[in-house]
């Protein structure tokens, strides 16, 4: 049987953690033959709640769960980690400005990026879920690059929830099952500016754009529905999306680690000289191919005028976020 791998999860006592940990431990992320050791990070005041979650993990008697560590010290949480899911983040409090939010999270993710680079496995794969996830991933990566050791391409932000939301909206519109769709893309920032793009998508071999054939629906219904879905869930549930966010994190890591026969949307550092003109290192939603434990941005897709405008808008937002944290990364 395989040796266990170490999976660090931050924000372990939170609501996404409560969905995520059980699915990692049951083998849904890394395979039903892959034992895991969970290394749980949360704030000191959340340690009692983490112990409660651990009691429940024990009570599931998961055959693949080879150990659990709980800590409030990032150096302990990330020690020898093969995978890091950075879920914990500073939420926006009442009266908090956007710039304050970026700075508060900048402080968290510089510390965590450094701790990962100093302690984790050199081949560690890192996924940032905590918002603003693209910029938090950018910050963690910048801090990690200063240390060296780990692969700078392996600091990702999570766009997969947007990708999955787009698939389900297309399924509802066309009456075709979600499983029939391939080659969905979501470009840019995990925010309402993201651009969900089905121009290249197929459903059982049919071109989805031709199938939908409704530019007004695309612009006035589809994009706003996908872009504002998080807010709609908060409005309905009184809490932000958690199970679906955990599901997307499982999907992202699963496909990255084990491969996929479909395109996968990932927030990844823009490759140098990419064909879309995204500045190198900006953590941006791209279509990716995953094979043999690594990923590659799919380059050279045609970008029409409408798409160019949408991509520019979400890039402008990310560049604004990057400028707001630039001083912290010096
Ligand atoms: P919760 O508030 O339920 O849980 C957050 C947990 O993180 C808490 O236990 C808290 O103590 C912990 N935490 C805070 N700072 C920490 C730190 N420095 N180190 C370790 N732990 C820390 O939030 P939850 O609903 O679980 O959401 C977590 C994050 O995911 C939020 O930032 C949220 O905005 C983000 N989301 C991202 C999504 C995406 O698609 N990328 C979608 C869902 C979600 O909105």
Automatic annotation (TrEMBL):
- Residues bound to substrate are 92, 98, 131, 165
- Annotated Lactate/malate dehydrogenase C-terminal domain residues: 160-321
Q: Which residues cross the membrane?
A: none
GO biological process, alphabetically ordered: malate metabolic process; tricarboxylic acid cycle
The protein's enzyme class:
oxidoreductase
Q: Which GO terms describe its molecular function?
A: L-malate dehydrogenase (NAD+) activity
Which reaction is catalysed here? Answer: (S)-malate + NAD(+) = oxaloacetate + NADH + H(+)
Stretches assigned to the Lactate/malate dehydrogenase N-terminal domain: 5-143
- Provide the active-site residues from the annotation: 190
Q: Which UniProt keywords apply?
A: NAD, Oxidoreductase, Tricarboxylic acid cycle
Known EC number: 1.1.1.37
Q: Where does NAD(+) bind?
A: 11-17, 42, 105, 112, 129-131
Recorded hits in HAMAP family, A to Z, give: Malate_dehydrog_2
| UniProt record similarity statement | Belongs to the LDH/MDH superfamily. MDH type 2 family.
Q: What does this protein do?
A: Catalyzes the reversible oxidation of malate to oxaloacetate.
Q: What is this protein called?
A: Malate dehydrogenase
């Amino acid at each position: 049987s395989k040796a266990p791998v170490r999976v660090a999860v931050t924000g372990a006592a939170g609501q996404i953690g409560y969905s995520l940990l059980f699915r990692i431990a049951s083998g849904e992320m890394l395979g039903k033959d892959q034992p895991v050791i969970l290394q749980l990070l949360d704030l000191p005041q959340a340690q009692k709640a983490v112990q409660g979650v651990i009691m429940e993990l024990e009570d599931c008697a998961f055959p693949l769960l080879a150990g659990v560590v709980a800590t409030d010290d990032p150096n302990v949480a990330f020690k020898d980690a093969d995978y890091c899911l950075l879920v914990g983040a500073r939420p926006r409090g009442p009266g908090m400005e956007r710039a304050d939010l970026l700075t508060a999270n900048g402080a968290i993710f510089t510390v965590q990026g450094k701790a990962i680079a100093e302690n984790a496995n050199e081949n560690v794969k890192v996924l940032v879920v905590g918002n603003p996830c693209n910029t938090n991933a950018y910050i963690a990566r910048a801090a990690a690059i200063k240390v060296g050791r780990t692969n700078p391409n392996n600091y990702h932000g999570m766009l997969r929830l947007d990708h999955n939301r787009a698939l389900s909206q297309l399924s509802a519109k066309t009456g075709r099952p979600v499983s029939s769709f391939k080659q969905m893309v979501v470009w840019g920032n995990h925010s309402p500016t993201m651009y969900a793009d089905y121009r290249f998508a197929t459903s059982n071999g049919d071109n989805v754009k031709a199938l939908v054939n409704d530019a007004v629906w695309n612009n006035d219904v589809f994009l706003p529905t996908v872009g504002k879905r998080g807010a709609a869930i908060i409005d309905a549930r009184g809490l932000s999306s958690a199970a679906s966010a955990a599901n997307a994190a499982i999907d992202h890591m699963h496909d990255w680690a084990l491969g996929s026969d479909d395109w996968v949307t990932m927030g990844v550092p823009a490759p140098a000289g990419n064909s879309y003109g995204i500045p190198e290192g900006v953590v941006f939603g791209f279509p990716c191919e995953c094979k043999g434990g690594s990923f590659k941005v799919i380059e050279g897709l045609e970008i029409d005028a409408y798409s160019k405008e949408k991509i520019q808008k979400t890039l402008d937002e990310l560049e604004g976020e990057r400028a707001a944290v630039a001083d912290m990364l010096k």
